[in-house]
Write a structure and sequence with these properties.
mainly alpha; 2 helices; 76% helix; elongated
Length: 55
């Protein structure tokens, strides 16, 4: 079941649909920015830096 059901991600259930979509949109947008940085730098270093920031 998805976020509206009884099972699924505990954190997503707490956020509700609006929070879930907001966070999904944020990370999707962030991923595209990092992908552009990787393309411009011709390296995966920006991706590694982002993973360090997020962990």
């Amino acid at each position: 079941m998805g976020i509206s059901g009884n099972s699924g991600c505990m954190h997503c259930n707490r956020l509700g649909r609006g929070g879930y979509y907001g966070i999904s949109f944020h990370f999707q947008k962030r991923f595209l920015s990092v992908a552009d940085e990787c393309s411009d730098a011709d390296s995966i270093e920006p991706l590694i830096n982002e993973l360090e920031r997020q962990s």
